[in-house]
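Q: What would this chain look like folded?
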Amino acid sequence: MKLCVLDGFAENPGDLSWDWLHALGDCAVYDRTPAAEIAARIRGCEIIFTNKTPLTAETLAAEPQLRYIGLLSTGFNVVDWAYCRDHGIAVTNIPSYSTQAVAQLTFALILEHTNAVAAHSASVHGGGWAASADFSYQVAPLAELGGKTIGIFGFGKIGRTVANIAQAFGMRVLACTRHPSQAEGVTFVERDVMLAQSDIVTLHCPLTPETEGMVNAAFLAKMKPTALLINTSRGQVIDEQALAQALQTGVIAGAGLDVLAKEPPAADNPLTGLPNCFITPHIAWAAFETRARLMDIAQSNLRAFLSGTPENMVY
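A: My prediction, written as structure tokens:
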């Protein structure tokens, strides 16, 4: 059996093992695969794993022996799953593996705004504390989360986990979702109400035709000028030019982003370089424990398929 991993480096930069996959047959693991090399690398494969490398209907049509595509991600938009469904190719994804990690980074971005840890540490290492006349000083305003209102857009597993953490900080929690369900201490409201009342708006929604570009100038204008916007969902949910304009003109106070519309971003992305916009390079999923969990589920998905009882099918 011939297998390949098209872009394994992000999932496993060397601290995990592909031995379980090599044991199944002739397996090639590529760190990353340029578009021009996809067809050659999957030629003759029965099993393919991909994270962000696209697999189109045209490419897949040339591989009639292909039986299985394992996604190393939750999202499955990189694969033409409708073609796979119609041609008997199983496609599985990795659901719910990063809930705790994404919620954790959500608050890391929030706390960088409220506590300015990096700025204060840089000041101390630069000699600021040694030169200070006082035992304590600030290089940026500090704020407590207790008593603040957080608005959560999208209330799946990650949104619920964020709500639990926010409650532990003593925050008031609003949520906006298409399918409200009971959650202790959470008030479900319409989007405009959430935007008007929230000190922090955090996005945990899927990318759909309805949410693509949702955070535009009109959306941002409904937020408080002191509010923060956090996005650990999908970059395409935000109109980046509109957000940059809002951050530069004081429409909102700040943003924290782990995702951008294009990754890696162009050098002239309008959000890079803005002092009130913290950006991390899509790392919410990248803790060792999180990636190890992903690897375990990927292995389980494949073994379930090979045993005739597929799990986590995307269609």
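The chain is about 30% helix and 15% strand.
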